[in-house]
Amino acid sequence: MELNLNKLTKQYGSKLAVDRVTLTLQPGLTALLGANGSGKTTLLRMIVDIIKPTSGEIFYDGKNIMKLKEQYLCDIGYMPQHLGMYPNFKVEEFLYYMATLKGLKKSYAKIQIDKLLHKVNLEEKRHHKIKTLSGGMYQRLGIAVCLLNDPKIVILDEPTAGLDPKERMNFKNLISSISQDKIVILSTHIVSDISEIADRIMIMKDGSIISYDRPEVLLKEMEGKVYALTVPNDNVVNYEKYTIVNRKVGREETYLHLLSDEKIEGATLLTPDLNDLYLYHFKDGEEF
C-alpha cells in the first residue's frame, strides 16, 4: 500500500501555500512537523480531497485518486483540527449518525462502534451527551469517528491541541496502536506528541517539505550542532547569536543549551533530540 504525492501544489492568489510536494507514504506513522502557517493543513486537506490542488497529482497504489473517487474516500479517515460534533447528541448516537453518513451498514456499524468505544476508553460514556465530555474524551471520540470505516489511510490534524500531558500521552499510545497496518499522517507542532512513535518525520516550512526520513537519520544529521555550557550571567548576551533552546539562570551563572552550525569554544556537545531538530529548522522567528 502506497500513497504518492507528485509535485502537489496549492496557490491562493499570490500566496503559495504548498509548493510542489513530492513524496511516497507507506504504512506506519509519519509525523508532519511545522510551524503554524507552514502549509500542513492545506497539504492534508488536499490528501483527503477536501480541496483541489492547483497542480500536481495524488496516486493511491499507482492509481490517480481523481479516477478512484469514492473508492479512495472509503479508505480515508480524517480528523480535522477543529472537530464539529453536535453537543446534544449522545456519544453512541453520534457514532451511529456518522456511520450512516459514511454509508456503513447498521450491523457493521454496531460492531465497529462497540469495538471503538472500548479502544478509545469511552464505553462508560456511550449514553452521555457530547457536551459533558472532557477535552480528552472529546478528542478520543473524534478518533473513533475517524476510524469508523476502518480506513487504510488516517489523517490527523493537530489531534492533541489543548490536551493536558496525561491525555496527550494516552492519545499518543492510541495512535501508535493503530499505525501498524495503516498509513497514518499526524500533523503537529508539539514535538513530544511524536517522540518515540514516529516511523518517519516530514518537516514542512513555507509550503515545502525540507526534510523527510526516519527519525534516527534526521537526528544523525544534527550531530555536532547541539551544545551546552555554563557562563557568567553578564556574559549570556555574547551567546544570543545562537539558537538558545533552553537557559537556566542561577545566582551567578546561566546554563545554556544551544544550537549552532559553528563550533562553540568551551561548550560540550550534546546528543540531539527531536526538539533540537525542530528548533534548528525554525530558528528564524516562526511562530511555534
Question: Can you describe this structure?
Answer:
This protein has 288 residues and is α/β, with parallel strands linked by helices. The chain folds into two domains: 3-220, P-loop containing nucleotide triphosphate hydrolases (Rossmann fold, 3-Layer(aba) Sandwich); 226-270. It is 28% helix and 30% strand. It has helices at residues 40-47, 65-68, 70-73, 91-101, 106-119, 135-146, 165-178, 215-220, 274-281; strands at residues 3-12, 15-25, 28-33, 55-60, 63-64, 76-79, 153-157, 183-188, 200-205, 208-213, 226-232, 243-249, 253-259, 268-269. A hairpin with a 2-residue loop joins strand 9 (200-205) and strand 10 (208-213).
Summarize it.
The protein is α/β, with parallel strands linked by helices.
What count of domains describes the coordinates? 2
CATH class of the largest domain: Alpha Beta
Query: In the CATH scheme, what's the topology name of the largest domain?
Result: Rossmann fold
Task: Find the CATH superfamily of the largest domain.
Answer: P-loop containing nucleotide triphosphate hydrolases
Largest sheet: 6 strands, mixed
How much helical structure, as a percent, in the residues? 25-40%
Shape: globular
Helix segment count? 9
Question: End-to-end distance, in Å?
Answer: 33 Å
Order of helices and strands: EEEHEEHHEHHHEHEEEHEEEEH
Low-confidence stretches: none
Mean pLDDT: 92
